[in-house]
Automatic annotation (TrEMBL):
<protein>
    <submittedName>
        <fullName>Histone acetyltransferase</fullName>
    </submittedName>
</protein>
<feature type="domain" description="N-acetyltransferase">
    <location>
        <begin position="4"/>
        <end position="148"/>
    </location>
</feature>
<dbReference type="GO" id="GO:0016747">
    <property type="term" value="F:acyltransferase activity, transferring groups other than amino-acyl groups"/>
</dbReference>
<dbReference type="InterPro" id="IPR000182">
    <property type="entry name" value="GNAT_dom"/>
</dbReference>
<dbReference type="InterPro" id="IPR016181">
    <property type="entry name" value="Acyl_CoA_acyltransferase"/>
</dbReference>
<keyword id="KW-0808">Transferase</keyword>
<dbReference type="Pfam" id="PF00583">
    <property type="entry name" value="Acetyltransf_1"/>
</dbReference>
Length: 148
């Protein structure tokens, strides 16, 4: 059994986060290490977001990023914006440790729950969430407009 620990993100983690992102989705290579570093600095210094990392033997093997989700028709939630585990550490409890840590963090700060989006093709991920008590609520389309 591998030894793992959870901690908060540090700016110096930017290379590890970049590599995790690219392993998860090779198209993310365009968002450079420097941009990841800038984003971590912004998250740490200018938001109420939380990013928890999982380490094993000083190697970052996964992370989960939660952000306060405030609506005018709902209690406060945490929205999962990113959740990645290194492929060779999947199905070994790392994802469970990360999401349970985020749940504890959220609950201890008075949030009413956690919401997340998962691509329709990620059937294994859906089973992972459902086993942990997450309920499927709706299908929706995401739209984005980029400003050039």
């Amino acid at each position: 059994m591998i030894q793992r620990s959870i901690r908060g993100i540090r700016v110096t983690d930017y290379t590890d986060i970049y590599l995790l992102n690219v392993e998860f989705n090779p198209n993310l290579h365009a968002f450079s290490e420097d941009k990841v570093k800038e984003k971590i600095e912004t998250l740490i210094h200018h938001t109420n977001d939380v990013v928890l990392l999982c380490e094993s033997d000083d190697e970052v093997i996964g992370y989960i990023h939660g952000s306060p989700y405030e609506l005018l028709f709902s209690e406060s939630l945490i929205n999962v914006l990113g959740f990645v585990v290194k492929e060779r550490y999947r199905n070994q409890g790392t994802g469970s440790l990360l999401i349970e840590s985020l749940e504890q963090w959220s609950q201890s700060r008075g949030y009413s729950g956690i919401k997340l989006l998962s691509h329709p093709s990620r059937v294994q991920a859906h089973r992972f969430y459902e086993r942990r008590g997450y309920k499927f609520t709706k299908d929706q389309k995401n739209f984005i407009k980029k400003f050039e």
